[in-house]
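Customer escalation, tier 2.

The customer says the design service returned an amino acid string that "doesn't look like it belongs to this structure." They asked us to rerun it and document both sides in this ticket. The original structure tokens are below, unchanged.
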């Protein structure tokens, strides 16, 4: 998608609702403005649950961002291409076992079956 806004999030929700349409989907989201756009029409087979504001601990993805930010700190890049290459390498280094260990809060694993 060309960006993150209410229109692109609506497209995402519409497409997600078409995947296994009989399945009820619950999405846990941060409080990004586009997640709460007034124009959104939430499909009947999707529920949105929002994390409390300013609470990175319940959101395991924040730990991934923290690691990526740490790698990026004090790095000098002379072009956007160098930045892109650096980020690509950092992301490729995040293997499934690393993601599981980074996001391994007890509540994440309790009662869930990982599909990756």
């Amino acid at each position: 998608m060309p960006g993150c806004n209410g229109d692109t999030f609506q497209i995402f929700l519409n497409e997600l609702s078409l995947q296994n349409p009989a399945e009820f989907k619950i999405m846990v989201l941060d409080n990004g403005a586009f997640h709460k756009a007034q124009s959104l029409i939430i499909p009947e087979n999707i529920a949105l649950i929002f994390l409390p504001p300013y609470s990175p601990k319940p959101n395991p993805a924040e730990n991934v961002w923290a690691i990526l930010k740490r790698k990026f700190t004090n790095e000098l890049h002379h072009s956007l291409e160098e930045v892109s290459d650096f980020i690509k390498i950092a992301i490729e280094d995040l293997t499934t076992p690393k993601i599981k260990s980074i996001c391994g809060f007890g509540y994440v694993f309790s009662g869930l079956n990982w599909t990756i």
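Tier 2 assessment: The sequence is consistent with the input. The two ends are 24 Å apart (CA to CA). The first helix runs from residue 6 to 18. Sent an explanation to the customer and offered a walkthrough call.
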